[in-house]
Amino acid sequence: MEFYATPPIDGAFCRYVLIDDDMAHPVPDSISDDAAALLEPLSVAITTMRKAHVVPGSSILIAGAGPIGVICAQAARAFGAARIVVSDPLPARRERVLQFGATEVLDPTVIDVAALDPPVDAFVDASGAPAAVISGIKAVGPAGHVVLVGMGADEIALPISHIQILEINVTGVFRYTDTWPAAIHMVSTGAVDLDGMVTGRYDLEHVGEALDSDSDPASLKSIVVPS
Question: What is the helix, strand, coil percentage profile of the chain, to 5?
Answer without folding.
Answer: 35, 20, 45
